[in-house]
Structures are given as structure tokens and as C-alpha cells.
Design a protein that fits this description.
50s Ribosomal Protein L17, Chain: A; rod-shaped; 210 residues; mainly alpha
């Protein structure tokens, strides 16, 4: 019977499994995010949270117990200095597991185990962070509006340029039409003057013959 057995063996011996968990805990506390299988993530979660609880205690005995699990002294120093202060007011629940789906190769259920960013309980956000989030959203909206205005300005410039080109094209056409009218009127005047001159000549000739 499997009385008081929390996790499975994962197909490994006890020594192999504890070594694997220690390496995963060290990587999680160092990088604050690890992508692994769902079963490994569930097995590592309790051990990682125990390390952070030891970091919050902060005494020598807690450091020695943490160094039995954590493989690197730099990571242990981070737990006792940085993470302990980050989660000082949080009563547990320092990690979350996000499921990713099935791995294509062997159809294993994959997930990400990561540290919770803030020191507030899950689902809640501190007021300062909420205000900063609102400010960030406002800045994003203002940036989007500025980008839209910048996009609209070139469009206005292009329309103004097109209108100026159209006006410039219309002006020569008007000038050409006016020049044609002037030439036509000048030719008409010449023709009328020629007719008058020929009419005068004919009248003079008739008088001479008479």
C-alpha cells in the first residue's frame, strides 16, 4: 500500500530522484522559472517553498538545512537575502505552475514552475503595484495616441503635397488655355484687318475704273 506517499517515483531510484529535485530547486531559485514536466514540477514545488521558508527564518541552522538541498552557495545567498525579503509578508504560496500542454515527442504533460513575482497572496496585487500598472497602462495609451498622431501627420503631409501638385498642374493648364484664347483673338484680329484692307483696295480700284 502507498500510505503517506505524496509523489511518485518518476521511474527513478531514490538517490537519482533526490539529486534531480535538488538540481531543479537550485535552477528554479536561481532563474525563478523552469520548464519541466508536470509531475516534476509538482514534486519540486513543496521543496522550493520549504527553501524559501528557511530563508525567511535566516538563522545558521536554517542555512545549513538549505545547503543540504541547494547545490550552489550563490543561490543560497540569494534565497536568504533577496527572496526572504521579497516574501517577508507572504504566508506561503511562493510558486505557481502554469500548464503548457503536451510535448510532441513523447506526449508528456509539460508545465512551467515559477516564483510569484510580488509578495501579495495569489490573485491579489499590492496597491503600489496596481497604481504602477495603471500608470503603465496610461503611458501605453498615450504612446499609442502619439504613434497614431505621428502616423496621421505623414498622411496629412502627403495629402497636402498631392493638393499642391494638383494646383501646380492646373496652373499650367489655365495658362495654356489663356494663351490659346489670346492667339485665337490675335488671329481673328489679323483676319479682320486683312479683310478691311482688301475691301479698301477693291473700292479704290472701282473708283479708278469709273
Amino acid at each position: 500500500m502507498r500510505h503517506r506517499v505524496k509523489a511518485g517515483t518518476l521511474g527513478r531510484s531514490a538517490s537519482h530522484r533526490t539529486a534531480m529535485y535538488r538540481n531543479l530547486v537550485t535552477s528554479l531559485l536561481e532563474h525563478e522559472r523552469v520548464r519541466t514536466t508536470d509531475a516534476k514540477a509538482k514534486g519540486v514545488r513543496s521543496l522550493a517553498e520549504k527553501m524559501i521558508t528557511l530563508g525567511k527564518r535566516g538563522d545558521l541552522h536554517a542555512r545549513r538545512r538549505a545547503l543540504r538541498v541547494i547545490r550552489r552557495r550563490e543561490v543560497a545567498a540569494k534565497v536568504f537575502d533577496d527572496l526572504a525579503e521579497r516574501y517577508r509578508d507572504r504566508p506561503g504560496g511562493y510558486t505557481r505552475i502554469v500548464k503548457l500542454g503536451i510535448r510532441p515527442g513523447d506526449a508528456a504533460a509539460m508545465s512551467i514552475i515559477e516564483l510569484v513575482e510580488s509578495g501579495a497572496p495569489a490573485g491579489q496585487q499590492p496597491k503600489a503595484e496596481a497604481k504602477s500598472g495603471k500608470k503603465a497602462a496610461k503611458t501605453k495609451k498615450s504612446a499609442a495616441k502619439a504613434a497614431k498622431a505621428d502616423d496621421a501627420k505623414p498622411a496629412k503631409k502627403t495629402t497636402q503635397k498631392k493638393a499642391a501638385k494638383a494646383k501646380a498642374e492646373k496652373k499650367p493648364a489655365k495658362k495654356k488655355a489663356a494663351a490659346k484664347k489670346d492667339s485665337e483673338t490675335a488671329s481673328k484680329k489679323k483676319a479682320s484687318s486683312k479683310k478691311k484692307a482688301t475691301a479698301k483696295k477693291k473700292a479704290v480700284r472701282k473708283k479708278k475704273t469709273d
